[in-house]
Amino acid sequence: AQSVTQPDIHITVSEGASLELRCNYSYGATPYLFWYVQSPGQGLQLLLKYFSGDTLVQGIKGFEAEFKRSQSSFNLRKPSVHWSDAAEYFCAVGVNRDDKIIFGKGTRLHILP
Amino acid sequence: DADVTQTPRNRITKTGKRIMLECSQTKGHDRMYWYRQDPGLGLRLIYYSFDVKDINKGEISDGYSVSRQAQAKFSLSLESAIPNQTALYFCATSDTRTSGEQYFGPGTRLTVT
After folding, report:
1. A4 CA to chain B: closest CA distance, Å?
2. CA B74 → CA A42, B54, B67, B71, B110, distances in Å?
3. pLDDT tens digit string along A37-46?
4. Which residues of A touch B33 (CB under 8 A)?
5. Is A31's pLDDT higher than 90?
């Protein structure tokens, strides 16, 4: 069965610094991969997704993620974070378009002024 | 108006009471999901429905039931609420005709005393 691991429960970065959130998945074939963001008191919003093709995926709010098959990873990056990026971030994996997706346990991002 | 709505947004109830959480969507999606979110555990799938006549258990369905009254409505019931069902509950939708990502409601915060 597929699974998702987000190794970092909390990450703290300074405003303007670069960011990388880690995500590793377990699945034999190429999965469908997602990153969601949850701002305080809000539901989840899709940041970006990978299904096939170019392994570097661009998303909303200046985020990008890179699929690395050899490392079973789908890390989320942003070159310069803003205070409004403080939120919880969830990586998710799906087997195919016709199935449910599995969420990681999340990484909470804190931004220092 | 929001595409996925949940009612109520907040609810406090007593142990042993029956409670229903409702979800409605205007996205025209065929698939709907119920998750619960607990700190440090991420999102866990309770039930999902791929169409009106299809209901499936998720990883933590014990103590819960659902009803898909129409394509746009999916309700979650707690037949006899217990304190460890205190959590944030999310409804989500997806469309098999497109890319499979899920769209989330704003959540219902349920407290069982």
Report:
1. 11
2. 20, 12, 6, 8, 17
3. 999 888 899 9
4. 100
5. no
